[in-house]
What we know:
This is (apollo) hypothetical protein. By secondary structure, the chain is mainly β.
Amino acid sequence: MPDYIITGILATLNYIDLKRDTNIRSPSLRPYPNLRQSRNLTFVYRTRADGCGRLWMVDTGLFEIPGAPRQVQAPAIVIYDLATNQQIMRYPLKSSDLINANTPAGLASITVDIVGDCRNAYAYVIDLATFGLIVYSLRENDSWRLSHNYFHPSPTAGNMRISGQYFQWGDGIFSITLTEPGCHGCRIAYFHPLVSIEEFSVSTCVLRNRTASQDSTFFSMFSKVGDRGENSQCTKHDYHAGSRVVFFAEIGRDAVSCWHTGSALTPSNIAILAQDRQRMSYPSDLHVTGDEVWVMVNTLPRFVYSRLDTNEYNFYIYRGNVRDLIAGTVCDSDFQRFLR
Length: 340
């Protein structure tokens, strides 16, 4: 029997059936794709569906039981076909991608970039633990690792107060979101470390070029965009093409915020859209799909540094319409036109 079954973890990847469980306050989690096949996955943080009907994820292969972590299989990029719910690829990351034993624990999110057609796709896998970025090419079935100072945490942003707990973290690059393609097919990749209030950018054409890091000007190809303001440490963020707005899941302010990319990234151009110290404590994931923003909250610091009160709700899923959320804020395009 697998160790994670013994410790009470039936499946690391689960789903909620919105058609069947619409009116249920706390619906049951269903193993994906089913209980038997879900046991092929050891530990998955955040998944992403692409425009080609595929579900991408990183299986860290790390059995993360407190006090007794164990690497049970190689970290890998895994893809499922959402039409058939069958696994169509498992790509074990190379030793050159994983610089030491701490790296697997930091493979916390994946961003998918489709270039032209479904066969030509890239995945950008962040490594928050050892401060790197792994790029995978589906067409070439190969990967390479990039390093940059902007992937590291900021030493002045490590003090945290979340869920009533005070602590210090040192997580590096945590999230990448992509704009629509420009005239040369390149997107802007916005990214940030979790322990930081700053945002950075780089062209995806730089990331997709496996030899770009050998260029003497490689490090200057990355730019600082600006900062969000005090206590604005952020987990995930995502871009909505129709409004040109980036949405942030801020753990430092227990909030969801936004920024219109047509304006400078400064604290005055950030709007807090939703905020609640109890029910939005540690928004761990945020994703824009269509014209909706989805946010997951899991009160992680309370679980790590204290204990969960099982008589309370500790896990939340929110969704909201993009236009409704930004209406009347500095992120609204109508407001931007008024400023000009």
